[in-house]
Task: inverse folding
């Protein structure tokens, strides 16, 4: 059986674990721990420290693994390990927290260094009132018009499916271009 | 959808860059311990700016600029005229000021507000789209590129420049708007940098070629980025340790596998 993987990355509390949970066929294998710093605890109780792992069986010969990275810099030793051999990656951004945009850009650049694979940006939490429009997120992240910045609500299956599909289209385009 | 945030995380130059590139129309309000600023934009151009109680009334602006004396206003019994367009016409007809005086004074007043805003390091902001500018005022459209460049030139915080541009080993390229460069007043140093931007040279290479220091190159590149004149390219891949072949990411994956994945998700 062939296994392929997609990595879901992004800043702390951007919705990576939820994104994988929404679409995985198995209960997500999560390495969450209680948060110790008061500033981060104000955002959420638990955070991923090593990785999240989800699986989708495509058919008897093919399985897709979804790996979620820890969002905090102190766990970034895991990033390169998780990035190895990935088909592409998704950068999750919390559209309601512009204070995390700079970190999202830095994570994106780091992953592009690991692998020149296709990627898309998911402007998450678009269902919330204060969410920035995906096109504003694009400018804030200094991304050119060729990069797909997609509206996303990580709790909604259709929305997550659309983000994954757009990444797969980008991968297919890249494969066609390199033939 | 309103844009909300804090200048602590998203500086005034970045906000103006966003409004400029997205050609936004609306009102930006910033509230901080320094005061409250209100800026109005139309199609990505600044058309009105006021700080606290100085609401940008034409009479006040002209008096502050030394173009008009209070007694001249009183002589024409104009002190109660609320509509600045009406007031401006009457002042021109009376020969007190010229149209050029009015436009230049309003422009200088707006720039004064924006440049003060550049010095604010924190303050809650909200941008509300499609809000009409304040009534009874004369809108004077001002392009944002030059304002942004000037704002970055005034940026004193080295730490902020480092945070915004942490990595100098990234190539830069010109954006697809060559006409924009002609509209911006660049310094000779900024032109020297522009001349080295070709999509291949990294920021670090440009710095070395032009014999600049790190802060100088960071400030210029950040300014050019914020003014929408250049953009960052993809960072070069990290070099593998000696003797280790570079893995091809996702290599071995055929087109048919990706198509199979796409079909699966389409059906899902």
Result:
């Amino acid at each position: 059986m062939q296994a392929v993987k997609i990595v879901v990355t992004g800043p702390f509390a951007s919705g990576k674990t939820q994104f994988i949970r929404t679409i995985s066929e198995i209960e997500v294998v999560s390495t969450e721990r209680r948060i110790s710093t008061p500033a981060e605890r104000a955002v959420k109780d638990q955070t991923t420290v090593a990785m999240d792992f989800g699986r989708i069986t495509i058919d008897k010969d093919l399985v897709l693994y979804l790996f979620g990275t820890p969002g905090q810099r102190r766990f970034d030793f895991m990033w390169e390990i998780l990035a190895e051999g990935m088909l592409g990656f998704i950068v999750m951004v919390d559209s309601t927290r512009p204070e995390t945009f700079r970190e999202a850009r830095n994570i994106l650049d780091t992953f592009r260094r690991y692998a020149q694979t296709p990627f898309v940006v998911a402007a998450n939490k678009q269902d919330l009132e204060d969410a920035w429009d995906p096109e504003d997120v694009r400018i804030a992240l200094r991304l050119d018009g060729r990069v797909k910045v997609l509206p996303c609500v990580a709790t909604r299956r259709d929305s997550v499916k659309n983000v994954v599909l757009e990444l797969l289209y980008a991968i297919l385009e890249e494969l066609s271009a390199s033939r | 959808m309103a844009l909300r945030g804090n200048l602590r995380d998203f500086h005034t130059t970045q906000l103006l860059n966003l409004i400029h590139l997205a050609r936004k129309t609306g009102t930006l309000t910033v509230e901080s311990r320094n005061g409250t600023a209100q800026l109005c934009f139309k199609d990505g151009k600044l058309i009105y700016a006021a700080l606290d109680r100085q609401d940008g009334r034409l009479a006040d602006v002209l008096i502050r600029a030394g173009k008009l004396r209070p007694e001249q206003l009183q002589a024409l019994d104009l002190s109660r005229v609320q509509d600045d367009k009406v007031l401006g016409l009457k002042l021109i007809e009376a020969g007190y000021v010229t149209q050029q005086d009015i436009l230049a004074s309003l422009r200088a007043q707006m720039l004064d507000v924006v440049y003060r805003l550049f010095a604010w390091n924190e303050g809650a902001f909200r941008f509300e789209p499609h809000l009409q500018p304040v009534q009874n005022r004369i809108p004077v459209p001002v392009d944002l590129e030059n304002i942004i460049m000037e704002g970055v030139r005034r940026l004193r915080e080295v730490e902020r420049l480092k945070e915004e541009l942490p990595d100098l080993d990234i190539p830069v390229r010109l954006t697809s708007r060559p006409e924009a460069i002609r509209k911006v007043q660049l310094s000779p140093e900024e032109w020297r940098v522009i001349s080295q931007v070709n999509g291949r040279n990294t920021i670090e290479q440009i710095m070395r070629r032009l014999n600049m220091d790190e802060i100088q190159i960071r400030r210029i590149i950040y300014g050019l980025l914020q003014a929408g004149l250049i953009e960052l390219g993809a960072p070069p891949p990290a070099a593998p340790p000696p003797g280790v072949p570079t893995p091809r990411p996702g290599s071995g994956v055929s087109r048919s596998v990706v198509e199979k994945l796409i079909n699966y998700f389409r059906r899902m």
About this structure: The interface with chain A takes residues 1-6, 8-10, 14, 17-18, 21-22, 163-164, 166-167, 170, 225, 231-232, 234-238, 247, 249-251, 253, 255, 257-262, 264-266, 268 of chain B (CB under 8 Å). Chain B has twelve helices and seven strands. Confidence is low (pLDDT under 50) at residues 244-249 of chain B.
